[in-house]
Specification:
The longest helix is centred in the C-terminal third of the chain and has 19 residues. The chain is of the alpha/beta class. It contains 11 helices and 9 strands. The chain is elongated and about 70 Å long. The strands form 2 sheets. The protein has a 6-stranded parallel β-sheet with strand order 3-2-1-7-8-9, with helices on both faces. It has a 3-stranded antiparallel β-sheet with strand order 5-4-6, with no helix packed on it. α1 crosses α11. The protein has 2 domains: 160 residues, Rossmann fold (3-Layer(aba) Sandwich), CATH 3.40.50; 88 residues, no CATH class. β4 and β5 form a beta hairpin. The relative contact order is 0.19. The structure holds nicotinamide-adenine-dinucleotide and zinc ion. Zinc ion binds next to loops.
Length: 275
């Protein structure tokens, strides 16, 4: 377990900052039961072509496995609730340190936890986007999973044409698709994410392998603007080398400890009223 000294060091760095930004990846949702892609047993571990071509490449190469792959991912997401890591980020916002969460996750858990400024670079699986009029609409959990499960249950093997012909309809008559960014598609919220990275004085790099671009370039942008970098991950990532502090462990365990330590620091800084 990471030492109290390391947690205290992170809390002291944060306590001296006014504008902290978090960059989160799949690891932050791992403790909510959603598998990351690259870790042992993850999708890319089982289907290595995924790391260079994404989930569509996996399903194109293994069309008969597609219903089970999609159902597996959906099962994890369906049961997932925000974990102590997501909630600690809300605490950091309420304490006045954290200004924004930039996430690569599509699972909506930062918003569900209560973070108010969330930039979703890879979209949001709960949002539907009309392919004709571009209208975006967030769907409720229950109807959303019902719709997707019906769609997957109809599939015997992967076929983009079949998926396209079974998509829900928009009021304009067009088809609406889940608004998650597929491999090769442009990311979302990039100007906002860039602006946050440039303006922050500290970036928390949480549960990301740091190999998916352009999200992986944001810590460099922050650092060029003078920001400190703190990373939390059970394993070193492609970004560890440039970080000021690396805390080896799970975000759901370490972030709440940092919040407690910050509360202690804040408590000590309160000047007692004159008697
Ligand atoms: P990744 O799968 O490439 O890497 C996950 C990282 O999380 C690894 O570095 C791993 O060591 C770390 N990790 C594992 N458990 C952790 C924990 N408990 N606490 C902290 N860190 C932990 O993830 P990525 O870099 O975010 O990129 C993968 C892509 O896959 C992204 O584009 C993302 O959109 C997508 N994805 C999203 C979800 C989701 O929405 N929850 C899940 C899987 C993949
Ligand atoms: Zn429409």
């Amino acid at each position: 377990m990471i030492s109290h000294e390391m947690i205290d060091k992170a809390a002291r760095l944060i306590s001296g900052c006014k504008r902290v930004t978090a960059l989160s990846g799949a690891g932050v949702s791992a403790e909510s039961g959603i598998s990351t892609y690259r870790d042992a047993g993850g999708l890319w571990d089982r289907y290595p072509e995924g790391s260079s071509g994404g989930i569509l490449a996996v399903m194109t190469n293994h069309p008969e496995d597609a219903p089970q792959i999609l159902m597996g991912f959906l099962e994890g997401i369906k049961k997932a609730k925000p974990n102590p890591g997501h909630r600690a980020l809300v605490d950091l916002e309420e304490m006045g340190y954290l200004r924004a969460v930039i996430t690569q996750n599509v699972d909506n858990l930062h918003r569900e936890a209560g973070s108010s400024q969330v930039f979703e670079m890879h979209g949001n699986l709960y949002r539907l986007r009309c392919l004709k009029c571009n209208k975006k609409e967030i769907m409720g959990r229950e109807p959303y999973f019902k719709m997707l499960e019906e769609l997957i249950n109809k599939m015997t093997r992967f076929s983009l044409e079949e998926i396209a012909s079974n998509l829900p309809s928009c009021s304009c008559g067009g088809s609406a698709r889940p608004d998650a960014v597929a491999f090769g598609e442009p990311v979302q919220d990039l100007p906002e994410a860039m602006a946050e990275a440039k303006a922050c004085d500290l970036m928390l790099i949480l549960g990301t392998s740091g190999v998916v671009y352009p999200a992986a370039s944001l810590p460099g942008v922050a650092q060029s603007g003078g920001a400190k970098l703190i990373e939390i991950n059970p394993q070193q990532s492609a970004l560890t080398g440039r970080c000021d502090l690396f805390l080896e462990g799970k975000t759901g365990e370490i972030l709440p400890r940092i919040v407690s330590s910050l509360r202690e620091i804040q408590g000590k800084n309160i000047i007692p009223p004159e008697s």
